[in-house]
Amino acid sequence: MANLSVKNLLGIKHLNIKDVELIFKTADHFKEVINRPIKKVPSLRDITIANLFFENSTRTRLSFELAEKRLSADIINFSASQSSVKKGESLIDTVNNILSMKVDIIVMRHPNEGAGDFLSKHINAKIINAGDGAHEHPTQALLDSYSIREKLGTVKGKKVVIIGDILHSRVALSNIYALQLQGAEVKICGPTTLIPKYITKLGVGYENNLKRALEWCDVANVLRVQHERMDIKYFPTVREYVQLFGINKELLNTIDKDIVIMHPGPINRGVEITSDVADSKQSIILNQVENGVAIRMAIIYLLAEQIKR
Q1: pLDDT of amino acid 82
Q2: Mean pLDDT along residues 99-116
Q3: Residue 68: which of 307, 305, 299, 308 has the closest Cα?
Q4: Contact indicator for 289, 247 with CB cutoff of 8 Å
Q5: Architecture of domain 138-284 in CATH?
């Protein structure tokens, strides 16, 4: 069996195209498994996984937990809000205390960029980055690409526009890396105040007109406006944002093709996207959720195989 070229999943920028293809091929198998009447396989009965979430998460945490349970792994769930981190304990001390319980894999979400990279230099357990600050969210980007491949047959040659709050998004950067690695063309669209200055150096185009962006693309990946990360006003009013960058059915009807609509969630319905778009046939948002479990099963399984050897 083929191996991943990496020992941890810290970011898409560390992967090569063969890694992505292997993850997708493995996810195909697990997608078939989770659609059976008995959705569990005994693959990781001897593996212990700790889910360390130093930031709030619902969808990602539940998706990882479900993936781990489907693989029959033993699970430890850790929430920073109810831990000794509140008392000033360092990240390494926290993790070492958990590792003393013989943990094999750590799934970690952390508010600081590079937290997974830092940890990987100090511990032997496998690390899966479940989001580090506004940096990367590799499993989300992989499930997004997998969902595009499932819907359109391939990612190569497709035109994908990422719309919205690029500045505060860890999903955007990981998606740009993943899509370009697979040969897609990428543009970003949003208020100039929410576009990082460095972004065009990554080889992506910028379009400030939403209608032109939608006419150009095959796929629109719509991001949430992350009010909780904003310490200043990045646009005058939510109403103005909706008028300029909100996607509704009326706007989509003016475009002479059916583009694929994606959203990593949670959705601010009526802000970046209306309900009639989110729930339409063009939307693959619920497919993304289902594919998230298969992709995370694949990644956990492939990293656990390295431990078993």
Answers
A1: 55
A2: 90
A3: 299
A4: no
A5: 3-Layer(aba) Sandwich (3.40)
pLDDT score of 179: 98
Asked if 123 and 96 count as a contact pair (C-beta separation under 8 A), the reply is yes
For 194, the token pair is 């929410």
Question: Which pLDDT score, from 0 to 100, does residue 227 have?
Answer: 44
Distance CA 153, CA 216 (A): 19
Domain boundaries, the chain: 12-136+289-308, 138-284
Fold designation for 12-136+289-308: Rossmann fold (3.40.50)
Contact by Cβ (8 Å): 1, 159 = no
* Topology agreement, domain 12-136+289-308 and domain 138-284: yes
**pLDDT band, residue 236 (cuts 50/70/90):** low
| Distance of alpha carbon 137 from alpha carbon 127, whole angstroms | 13
Q: pTM for the full model?
A: 0.93
Chain centre distance of CA 73: 22
Which pLDDT score, from 0 to 100, does residue 199 have? 84
